[in-house]
Amino acid sequence: MNGHGGPSNGVAMGAVDTRHEGPYASHPGPSSSTNGTPVVNGFAQTPSPYQLHNEEIVNHLYNAGFQTGNYADTILHVHQNAYRLHAIILSRSPLLAHLMSTSPQSTGQRTIYVPLEHEPEVTDEVTLGYLYSAVSLNLIRPENARAVLAAGCLLGHMDDLCNYAYQVCRQSITVDNISSWLEFVDAIPSPSDGRSTPIEPHQLSPSRTAVFGPYAQRLKEDLLMFLVVALPNALNVGGQATPVTPHPDETPDAGRDALLQVYARVPFDLFKAAIESPTFQIGSDQTRFKFAKDAIELRKRGLARGQGAEETVVLAFGGNNFGGSAVHVTRKLRRRPLWKVNS
């Protein structure tokens, strides 16, 4: 456990603690001079005694309270780690306050367990440190931002942390991690279009993305913008980002081929929205139609295979007949063969 002569909070015996140690070493905030005095509009601003006192208290709570667990009154179990923490700080979270109020206390220290069996996205515990101090924002990286966002939404009352983690998430979508993000948005339930039979919420199986609340849909929209704008530019499809010598018809376009491989794995509702988006500029309507047709052929061999649905694309001539897009993607269920039973 943590404390005097032992490892820090949540770090197993023998493990190296790579977490932040100094108070607010790189925390984003106002500019400061070389002596640490905040600078506003080029003028050094001397912190008031109240600010200095409050910062000193927060630093002490984080270092002595969270990192070492001194004078803890609550043992909190998260995954394989145990944390010696403080009930008055944990009560900032509605979830943890509920767990403490409903957990029996037979000894001097209260023990609570955070149930994460149905929350696979919650794999990071930066949020626990954030209960003590905003310095934990320094630990948010592209590789853990989504897990921090999930944990912040789960614990509740962490709007600043969630917004910060969300911004890191949306800015970290790249070609290299696109597969992970496609799997994520594929788990987001699609809103009903009003044509299917209504389903009550209790009839739906829990979604791994439910914990994100409204952030899930916002991330889905961010991924759509990445697919229709940033990704084609990054791959320089058709020389959109950097003009190049036009390819002869028989010469392959490496950027287009890479984009096709991505679009072949995009969930249908996102695929349809991307192809029909007016911001998906990879050439003329005919070029976009040909791209969609080639992508659907690839999808038939992979994502759309065995789903009992057939995807098609049509090109409207002589005007925009599909809500501003001349290219329209549809999907219809395949008819099941009827078997005749002889009497």
Task: Please outline the helices and strands.
Blueprint: E1 39-40, E2 43-44, H1 49-67, E3 74-78, E4 81-85, H2 87-90, H3 94-102, E5 110-113, H4 126-132, H5 145-155, H6 159-171, H7 178-186, H8 214-235, H9 254-263, H10 268-276, H11 285-301, E6 309-315, E7 327-333
Parallel strand pairs: 3-5
Antiparallel strand pairs: 1-2, 3-4, 6-7
Helix pairs in contact: 5-6, 8-9, 8-10, 9-11
Structure write-up:
- It is built from eleven helices and seven strands.
- The protein has 343 residues and is mostly helical.
- A three-stranded mixed β-sheet has the order 4-3-5. Strands 1-2 form a two-stranded antiparallel sheet.
- Helix 8 runs antiparallel to helix 9 and helix 8 crosses helix 10.
- The longest helix has 22 residues.
- The protein is elongated, with a radius of gyration of 26 Å.
- The chain starts with 38 loop residues before the first strand and ends in a 10-residue tail after the last strand.
